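Researcher: Let's do a round of design. I'm pasting the structure tokens now; please hold your answer until I've finished.
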């Protein structure tokens, strides 16, 4: 087992064991594929079954959702979808053996308002309250004609925080940071992106492309001064300075959009923030 910093293994995607201590520290059980969070008030790991999503009600904030419930917990997530009939709110995949949530896009090909699907937690996370470690496991049904974003943002409504067309970034959020993949770009690779108080950060090309229908481990660390570091499948892929305003209230976001008239599915089997 590997010792960890803030509950996340610094040498890989997920920790095997945490140091213990304040609420929010956690560990990733590699055998059972569950993220456990420590609650200082209760003096232990009250959600060790890992069967239901949980979100802290006090600082430091944390989220743990393995999507093993019958439906997405709307006490944790705001669910959004576009106007197209094909676009639906994120939903638990009933036939999954491991607990999975699907975000299915529309197939109009006209943008987020018609085709988007997203889930966002309450806007009560601030980097200045303590270093944020966000982890997730995500996969795309296909890696053509698609956009997705995973990270933190300042709105719970349906929005694409950052997009990329050829070589031009568009930031729709005032404050957001995370990873983005957009096949409208000249090069179809994952970018580490951020915007702080409407000022774009210097975005970083990770040079990594997702693999269709294959889970990718993502770790995003945001320091108390708003600097973001990104790991993909356990490998550090870049840092973004001034990625987000430390004092702004943010929520965890997972979102997807179709770039043409072909519907796409973004799936997660874990989102955890500690």
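Researcher: That's everything. Go ahead.
Model: Designed sequence:
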């Amino acid at each position: 087992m590997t010792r960890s910093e803030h509950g996340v293994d610094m040498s890989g995607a997920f920790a095997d064991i945490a140091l213990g201590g304040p609420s929010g520290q956690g560990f990733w059980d590699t055998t059972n594929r569950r993220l456990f969070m420590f609650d200082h008030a209760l003096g232990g790991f009250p959600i060790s079954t890992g069967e239901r999503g949980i979100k802290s009600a006090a600082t430091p904030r944390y989220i743990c959702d393995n999507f093993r419930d019958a439906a997405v917990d709307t006490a944790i997530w705001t669910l959004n979808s576009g106007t197209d009939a094909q676009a639906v709110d994120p939903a638990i995949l009933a036939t999954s053996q491991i607990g999975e949530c699907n975000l299915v896009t529309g197939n109009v090909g006209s943008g987020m308002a018609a085709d988007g699907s997203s889930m966002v937690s309450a806007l009560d996370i601030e980097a200045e309250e303590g270093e944020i470690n966000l982890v997730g496991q995500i996969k795309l049904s296909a890696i053509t004609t698609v956009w997705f974003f995973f990270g933190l943002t300042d709105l719970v409504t349906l929005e694409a925080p950052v997009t990329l067309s050829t070589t031009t970034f568009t930031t729709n959020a005032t404050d957001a940071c995370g990873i983005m993949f957009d096949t409208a770009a000249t090069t179809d690779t994952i970018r580490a992106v951020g915007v702080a108080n409407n000022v774009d950060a210097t975005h970083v090309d990770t040079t990594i492309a997702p693999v269709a229908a294959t889970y990718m481990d993502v770790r995003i660390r945001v320091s108390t001064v708003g600097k973001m570091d990104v790991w993909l499948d356990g490998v550090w892929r870049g840092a973004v300075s001034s990625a987000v305003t430390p004092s702004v209230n943010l929520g965890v976001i997972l979102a997807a959009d179709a770039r043409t008239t072909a519907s796409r599915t973004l799936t997660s089997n874990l989102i955890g923030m500690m």
